[in-house]
Amino acid sequence: MDMETDQIYQIDVGNLLAFNPNHRFSSAPSSREELVKECVTEGTKLVQAIADTLFNLPSTETNDGPLVQLPPPSTKLPREKHLPRPKPPTKWEEFALKKGIQKRKKDKIVYDETTDKFKRRHGYDRVNDDNDIPIIEAKASDEPGEDPFAKRLDDKKKRVGKQEKNRLENLKSAAKAGALPSHVQLAVTGLPISGTKAQPKKIGKEALGDVAGLAATSTASGGKFDKKLPGEKPPKKQGKHHKYLPVVPRYGWVDEEKEQTNKVLGKLLSKHSHEILNVGKAINMYNDKKEKKKSGRSDKLKAKKDITKKKPYANKAN
Amino acid sequence: MMEIRTPKTHKAKRVLEKRAPKLVENGKKTLILHGTKTSATLSSVLMELYRLKKGGAIKYSRRNENIRPFESGGETSLEFFSQKTDCSIFAYGSHTKKRPDNLVLGRMYDHHVYDLIEVGIDNFKSLLSFSYDKKIAPHEGSKPFICFTGEGFENVPELKQLKEVLTDLFRGEVVDNLNLTGLDRAYICSAISPTKVFLTHCAIKLKKSGSIVPRIELVEVGPSMDLVIRRNRLPNEGLRKEAMKSSKDKPKKKVKNVDQDDVLGKRGRIFIPEQEVGKTPLPDKSKGVKRERREGKLKKKKNKEEGSASKKHKESE
Prior knowledge:
The complex is a heterodimer of chains A (about 325) and B (about 325).
Chain A: E1 10-12, E2 17-20, H1 32-55, E3 59-61, E4 66-69, H2 91-99, E5 109-112, E6 117-120, H3 148-176, E7 185-188, H4 205-217, H5 256-269, H6 273-276, H7 279-295, H8 314-317
Antiparallel strand pairs in A: 1-2, 3-4, 5-6
Chain B: E1 2-5, H1 10-19, E2 30-34, H2 40-52, E3 57-63, H3 76-85, E4 89-94, E5 102-109, E6 112-125, E7 145-149, H4 152-155, H5 157-171, E8 177-179, E9 185-193, E10 196-207, E11 215-233, H6 237-244, E12 258-261, E13 265-268, H7 290-316
Parallel strand pairs in B: 2-3, 2-4, 7-9
Antiparallel strand pairs in B: 4-5, 5-6, 6-11, 9-10, 10-11, 12-13
């Protein structure tokens, strides 16, 4: 093949790319077909040049055909994502580094001295299982009346909680450095109440509905004329809540009304009735009622009495 | 008030790990979508581009009214889609009176727009209009040859950028091993003028020649079109430098304090730092460090036994 001396192609075998910087297309275009033909012939030359290098690479024979080892591409193209950032060492890692603690590989099967067997370290029937301890000896520092088994569980829960907190802190510092592991997401669950660290409790749908109902009925017109939002359900039971027991008890069922009155009577006539009945309050209520009955109407609607006026027969009636 | 969320299924975890930033990246996926209006040519261009890149492309069929790549606020939708589908190249087609048959090719870095180039499509010939022997039809997903001809690609900055974008678009995955029988397509791009590029897709016919290297023959099969450069946006320098960074960029560190000698071989020099007696981490002799104590005790026992054994031996003698 004769190639002109200045026809050096830039070939990138790794990308199967070839560039011919020296060809000049005529500025006065011949017919479209001729232009296309010219382009295709130039292209063929380039592909041939790449194939020359490609087929001369050392190849291995496989069932599908000859396999060649491609060199890495030489044209630099921009990455699609940033380079992975190094994650900052966790608090334990920093401590271990400072103290010179080395990581030791733990075996999956460990010798259990109590049963003289080899047991696994984690999982079913494990060595040093917390639930298997039959007896915990009392120490001088133990308080009487404290359950040591429950204490152990409690301690474990606390340890687990502390570990989770530390893990979250480590992940937060990793996220700050932009090096959060790919499968972990840190999600903000709720807005904190300013000034406190307490997590606001999540209110359920029903509770919200109840509160909305309460707010509605607390208006002057009892929520009757409030504009309803789209999707708002009508308020639940309105008005007074009464439970009326059946007058005639069902066959075989206990007479609920009778039971109700019996219960009250029983409480009043029992030994401890003085504890249930507030005698002073009862007397006051009785006297008030009597006086109201005498006056005939409630105090609010009546015009206020003039105390200074003397009533001729007031005492005599009593 | 933060919560750690991890995927509940292994599949989800694998997907997340696949999409995470890595040292060696996966092949870039292409997102193909269109704007409010598309002409017949433009919709067939987008469809055929999708077919060519099947396996590494996602095509959206709805029209997107709020995407304006060259305006400052109009890229948010694109960035969101790029994040959702994990696509780093997009091809956005639109047809307006001012810019008929407009195709915007863009790339993303970290799901933010990196660079854009806008081309107009002229003289489009569809896949279906080419008649050829079906036996040589290229297979889906095969690695293509990419050829650029013309001095324009070196001298004109817009064409330079277009060359880079087209390489990125057609390249597919970077592979280590290539099966030579699977080479069946080539993209030919020729800079016929400083503003026009002729792009065509051909199938490869390998013919017997005298040597191991077969003779190549190209047959036009695929869509062919003229790309007229309209607008473009280059990445800003800082972003470009960051995106071009690769892990192998660090120059090989000069190995110090090692010298080779023919007589003595490889020799190294070791410098011992000053010993700070006050700052060495002392062994932890607290009660909790059981393993060390146990091991120490065992060692002691062994030594004692050996000592007594040797004594006994001496006595017996």
